[in-house]
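Two folds, back to back.
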Amino acid sequence: MERLQKVLAQSNIASRRKAEEIITAGRVAVNGVVVTELGTKVEDFDQITVDGNLISRAETKYILLNKPTGYVSTTSDEKKRKTVLDLLDDDIKETRLYPVGRLDFDTAGILLLTNDGDFTKRMTHPEHMIEKEYLARVEGIVIRKKVVQLRLGVIIDGDYLAVPKAVRIMELDKAHQSTLISITLTEGKNKQVRKMMEAIGHPVKKLTRVRYDFLTLEGVERGSYRFLKRHEVKKLYANSLPKK
């Protein structure tokens, strides 16, 4: 069973918040009976009408996109920049899809998109500890002392202690004076990796998210996407259960 407002949102009737307003206004009926109570749950076979019109339920979709730089992780942009939805085929765009979290305009890599609000909440809330791994090419040679400093945590945004789940040096390029470093996070502060590297004196030159929990970029070229398989969605839900 699913909550009525979730079904309305997934059916492209309205956003979740607007769907709640439609319900409380008495415009929605389930099997001919007007429902005004939020949180009402419905079955797959229930008939739902809005203003007397029968709705057709939209299928939940889950997409893994390999985002290039130069795209914003929103459904629209007031600056008229390209959004990640511009990378989808036209028939997919007709579904009310939105990004799960975000990747910065100048960051590439794994970005999930869906029309499932509960899934988005589960994947993005810090308490669920979903791992995201980033590969950062940074300026200069990162010495062991700086790696230890990162692992212990660094202050960003004035007073926030950012502590990564893991840090690994992948490559030291002494010829070009740069370092390739892997950082795994379970949170998602704005520009967190960039701010953390700046805090130790090694600004990021290039940043890619290469792993989202167990999902990787394997088989998905930059700018393209694939649908998640049912067992992958179930595994993401399982991995996001509270840790005992």
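---
second:
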Amino acid sequence: MFLARIQTAQGPTVARIVDNFATPLNLASTGFTSLSQLLSSDQLGSLARELPALAASIPLDAVRWLPPIDDQEVWAAGVTYKRSQTARMEESEAAASCYDRVYTAARPELFFKATPNRCRGHLGELRIRTDATWNVPEPELTLVLSSRGKIVGYTIGNDMSSRDIEGDNPLYLPQAKVYNQCCGLGPWIALAEDMPPRETIGIGLKIVRDNQVVFSGETSVAQMARQLEDLVQWLMRDNDLPNGAFMLTGTGVVPDSSFTLAPADTVHISIDGLGTLTNTIVQG
């Protein structure tokens, strides 16, 4: 079972995903008005499975997917995998020292990634900046946090990045990371108790151009240099999250420095226990 947000005739709706069907849920029956409120409930597990239906179930191939987020902030962690450290050091000599130190420092690199309006869901369009020439997707296991900072679920994240902008100067990180349609999330949320053991979770990236695979790569959560709870506790320091948050946990799959995304590319990110998030790339 998963939780998702889908578009229906009544508007954006929270849905339960079971057996290849999406069932719109009657949140109002519990007094909730948003997915973020449901995710912060102490009875999340039972409510997710027992909430009454709002309308008839929809086959998954007929669903209009929305990113599974409504009121939350989106944050991200960087340089949590060895490959990510190496890639950042490749961007420029100026960046090399900074990212080398971050990889071994007690304090992780954390940055604000997106507001909900900058996110897109499964089968939606993600954007490459018009003023960038070196752009890549970053496949990331994404934590779903309650308002108290508890990991209540997981989803798939695509942390789009303009490597030439960040490489020019590390202080340009916000411009390299935060812009319209800069973050993919979805297709849905798996509750924490339904995920496989972390050390067994694999992450795969495939990029298709003109019906040809132009890049593919794999890693696993076991390759992370940091613990997920460690990232969360740093995020929560002196930082209230009244609506909860999504937290992308870094990437261990980075295309070679000769590769850049192009308009009409299709990006597929697969994570064990979560399925596949697919997005098409646009520019301008």
